C-alpha cells in the first residue's frame, strides 16, 4: 500500500484553504463584540466579560476555530428536527462563518461574539504539533445577553458540526459553569466521507496526501434537504477509518467564567 501520509506544517494547513476557509474563519467575526453591539451600549445595562474555554474531546476529529455567541433567549442557532439555517449550513459544509457574522450584525438580540484564530486539533493527530486542542476566548456582553451558544465545524465531515445551543451564562462575578457539546449533522449534504468532498484543510490536519484537493464550496449534487440530527459519526463508507477518525459524544467541553 502506498504511504499517503505527509509531514504537516502550519504553512501546509493554512495554504490548503480553498477559498480562504481558515483565513475567513479567523477574521470574519473577530474576537470581541460586534460593531454596534458593544456590551451595555444603549441598553442601560453594565458590561460583562466572560472567559470561555473550548476543548476538543475527540481523538481524531479537528474543529474549525470555535465561535461563541452571547445572546438573548429568543436566538436559536440550530434545533434538532428543524432545517439548518444558511449560517449553520455554511459553517457545517464549508467552515464558513461569514453568514453567522452577518446574522449577528443584523439582530440586536445577539449581544456579543468571539471566535478563535486556529483550528482545535486532537493530540493524536499530526497537526497537533502546530495547533492546540483547546482555545480560550474573551466574550463581552451585557445582562440582556444572558445565554451562550457555541458552534464549530467537524472538519473531516461533509456537514457535521459541534454545537451547544442557548445555555445560561454565569450570573455572578467569578462564577463558572461547564457544559458538554454534542455532534450534529446539518442534514444539508450527503455524508460521502470522501476526501474530495471535504474542505481542503481536512487532509492537511490529518497529515494525509491523497492527491485529491477537496473543496471549500457546497456541491449541489450532494444537497440533502434534511433536518438537523445527532450525528451518526464516521461509519466507514468513504476514505476515513472510523477507528482513527470517529468519535463519541460529547465532542467538546465548554467552560465559562464571569470575570467582571
What does this structure look like?
It contains six helices and nine strands. It is an alpha+beta fold. The protein is globular, with a radius of gyration of 18 Å.
Q: How are the secondary structure elements laid out?
A:
Layout lengths: L9 H6 L5 H7 L19 E10 L10 E5 L14 H9 L3 H9 L3 E6 L18 E9 L4 E7 L6 E9 L7 E10 L15 H6 L22 E2 L11 H4 L6 E7 L2
Antiparallel strand pairs: 1-4, 1-9, 2-3, 2-5, 5-6, 6-7, 7-8, 7-9
Helix % is: 10-25%
Shape: globular
Q: What class would the helix/strand composition place it in?
A: alpha+beta
Which H/E pattern describes the elements?
HHEEHHEEEEEHEHE
Feature tags:
alpha+beta; 260 residues; 16% helix; 9 strands; disordered N terminus
Explain briefly what this protein structure is.
The protein has helices at about 10-15, 20-25, 85-95, 100-105, 200-205, 240-245, and strands spanning about 45-55, 65-70, 110-115, 135-140, 145-155, 160-170, 175-185, 230, 250-260. The protein has about 260 residues and is an alpha+beta fold.
Amino acid at each position: 500500500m502506498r504511504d499517503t501520509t505527509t509531514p504537516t506544517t502550519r504553512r501546509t494547513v493554512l495554504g490548503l484553504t480553498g477559498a480562504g476557509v481558515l483565513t475567513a474563519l479567523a477574521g470574519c467575526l473577530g474576537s470581541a463584540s460586534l460593531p454596534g453591539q458593544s456590551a451595555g451600549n444603549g441598553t442601560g445595562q453594565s458590561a460583562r466579560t466572560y472567559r470561555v474555554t473550548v476543548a476538543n474531546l475527540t481523538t481524531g476529529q479537528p474543529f474549525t476555530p470555535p465561535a461563541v455567541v452571547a445572546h438573548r433567549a429568543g436566538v436559536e442557532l440550530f434545533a434538532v428536527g428543524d432545517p439548518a439555517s444558511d449560517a449553520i449550513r455554511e459553517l457545517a459544509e464549508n467552515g464558513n462563518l461569514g453568514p453567522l457574522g452577518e446574522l449577528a450584525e443584523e439582530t440586536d438580540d445577539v449581544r456579543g461574539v468571539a471566535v478563535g484564530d486556529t483550528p482545535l486539533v486532537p493530540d493524536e493527530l499530526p497537526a497537533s504539533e502546530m495547533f492546540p486542542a483547546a482555545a480560550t476566548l474573551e466574550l463581552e456582553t451585557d445582562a440582556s445577553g444572558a445565554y451562550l451558544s457555541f458552534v464549530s465545524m467537524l472538519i473531516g465531515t461533509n456537514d457535521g458540526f459541534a454545537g451547544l445551543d442557548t445555555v445560561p451564562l454565569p450570573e455572578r462575578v467569578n462564577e463558572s459553569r461547564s457544559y458538554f457539546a454534542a455532534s450534529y449533522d446539518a442534514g444539508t449534504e450527503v455524508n460521502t466521507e470522501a476526501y474530495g468532498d471535504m474542505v481542503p484543510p481536512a487532509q492537511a490536519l490529518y497529515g494525509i496526501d491523497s492527491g485529491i484537493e477537496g473543496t471549500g464550496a457546497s456541491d449541489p449534487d450532494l444537497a440533502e434537504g434534511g433536518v438537523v440530527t445527532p450525528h451518526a459519526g464516521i461509519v466507514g463508507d468513504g476514505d476515513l477509518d472510523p477507528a482513527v477518525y470517529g468519535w463519541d459524544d460529547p465532542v467538546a467541553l465548554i467552560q465559562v467564567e464571569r470575570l467582571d
